[in-house]
Design brief:
Layout lengths: L5 H11 L13 H22 E2 L2 E2 L2 H20 L6 H16 L4 H18 L17 H7 L1 H4 L15 H4 L4 H7 L10 H4 L4 H13 L10 H6 L1 H4 L3 H4 L7 H12 L1 H4 L5 H17 L3 H16 L3 H7 L1 H20 L3 H22 L3 H35 L1
Antiparallel strand pairs: 1-2
Helix pairs in contact: 2-3, 2-5, 3-4, 4-5, 9-11, 11-15, 17-18, 17-21, 18-20, 19-20, 20-21
Bound molecules: heme C.
Heme C (HEC) binds next to helix 1, helix 2, helix 6, helix 7 and helix 9.
Keywords: Heme, Iron, Membrane, Metal-binding, Transmembrane, Transmembrane helix
Protein name: Cytochrome c
GO molecular function: electron transfer activity; heme binding
């Protein structure tokens, strides 16, 4: 049975580990409450399909658990500050609860739960992406072996005490953020404090990568063409916040591979997409009060993302290059001189928008792309004719012999 660890989980939840979000003494911040709700939504998205299939109950305790989760989520959302949009969120939660009560399909419940988690994150500006580049899966492997393997297996294969991370179908239901979130003891109490209580944010993100890598350890890397066509999934925040299960099959596999090998995808990333991603991280640093980290990311975005492509862009659109140069310089001096925060945030956002325009300017024009297509067609025709000729000549020679 796939969920053999569920008995272990139920036992620990009901006896040893009270749900932290509900203890009366603690007053968690609204960020934490939103993250707790998001965490429970991700468990519903992933586990519900094991509890119900084709309208039939497969696992009664797991199903009861899902129903408890949805009530807990409603309480958590009720505790969040009231904003335009919260009532809507609660309404969607009501629809999700009904879908669970009516034993609707796993795919429907998953889609609804993930969509609600996205809206919750947008409404409460939940930080769902790391503010640093992700290391390789090996980085936290020693810690994984020491603290996690006893329940999740040396190669993530799972055991009677913890779920299987090599099960690609199950893992596709989690975003990297969902995995990270389960390792934050203020959000999820499934692990005791001896397991993840003293990990830093970076260590949790790195462990999420280690966990995500087990399902794709023996898979080939996706085609670089996919990386070119979907740059948003390769960079942050797309890489951290997207649930592969919500994507078409070929992208699903690609995203799972990319997030298990973040150190290898940097080479595939378009430099301007990298620049935009770094500026997004700079904004996060700046909002958190760390201007020097924001400054370093700005310089990195300029050097590694924009500068190598400036000559090409100069040929396509001189005015845009002038505008970009001015924006980079202004932002740099604003950060050094400590201009007002609204000015700096607006400047960061405007620069990202200009870089996105630059990215589209560097795409080959449509006519040129059509030209390539015609050239390829003519080349195949010529090749076909050549082959026919060669074959005809050979046949003639043969019949003469
Ligand atoms: C004592 C056993 C145990 C240990 C040790 C343990 N886990 Fe878990 N872990 C579990 C159980 C049980 C769940 C299932 C929670 C659920 O689905 O509600 C879980 C869930 C998770 C999840 C959520 C994804 C999923 O498949 O449900 C992640 C990620 C995770 N563990 C990572 C880790 C990491 C990383 C470590 C080591 C730092 C670790 N675990 C150590 C028992 C354990």
């Amino acid at each position: 049975m796939r969920c053999k660890w569920i008995w272990f989980l139920l036992l620990s939840i009901y006896t040893v580990l009270p749900f932290k979000g509900f203890s009366a003494q603690e007053q968690p911040s609204s960020d934490t409450v939103a993250a707790q709700a998001s965490n429970l939504l991700s468990y519903i998205a992933v586990n519900y399909g094991d509890a119900v299939s084709g309208g039939q109950l497969l696992n009664t305790p797991l199903y009861a658990f899902q129903r408890r989760h949805i009530d807990e989520i409603l309480i958590l959302v009720g505790r969040l500050p009231d904003r335009p949009g919260r009532a809507n969120l609660e309404e969607s939660l009501g629809v999700l609860r009904e879908a669970i009560e009516n034993k609707k399909s796993g795919a429907e419940v998953r889609r609804r739960a993930n969509a609600i988690a996205d809206r919750l994150a947008a409404l409460y500006q939940l930080q769902r992406s790391p503010t640093y580049s992700l290391p390789s899966a090996d980085f936290m492997m020693p810690v994984y072996q020491q603290r996690c393997a006893s329940c999740h297996g040396n190669n993530g294969e799972g055991s009677s005490k913890g779920p299987d991370f090599s099960d690609a179908k199950r893992m596709a239901g989690f975003s990297l953020y969902d995995l990270y979130n389960t390792l934050d003891p203020s959000v999820d109490s499934v692990h005791g404090s001896d397991i993840d209580g003293n990990l830093s944010g970076l260590q949790r993100w790195a462990l999420a990568v280690t966990v995500a890598s087990f399902a794709v350890n023996h898979q080939l890397s996706p085609s670089p063409d996919l990386a070119r066509r979907y740059p948003g999934l390769l960079g942050l925040p797309g890489l951290a916040t997207s649930q592969p299960a919500e994507l078409p099959q070929e992208l699903q596999e690609a995203l799972m591979w990319w997030r298990g090998h973040p150190h290898l995808i940097r080479a595939l990333e378009h430099p301007l997409v990298r620049a935009v991603g770094l500026l997004q991280l700079a904004e996060t640093d700046y909002r958190a009060g760390d201007s020097s980290a924001a400054y370093n990311k700005l310089i990195l975005a300029y050097r590694e993302g924009y500068r190598p492509l400036r000559p090409q862009l100069q040929v396509r659109d001189k005015l845009l290059v002038n505008q970009l140069q001015a924006q980079w310089h202004q932002l740099r001096s604003d950060l050094i001189s400590g201009a007002s925060s609204t000015e700096i945030i607006a400047a960061l956002q405007n620069l990202r928008a200009s870089l996105n325009v630059a990215h589209t300017k560097l795409e080959p024009p449509l006519s040129q792309r059509r030209g390539y297509l015609w050239a390829a067609l003519l080349f195949s025709l010529a090749l076909g004719l050549g082959l026919l000729l060669w074959w005809g000549l050979r046949e003639r020679k043969r019949s003469r012999l």
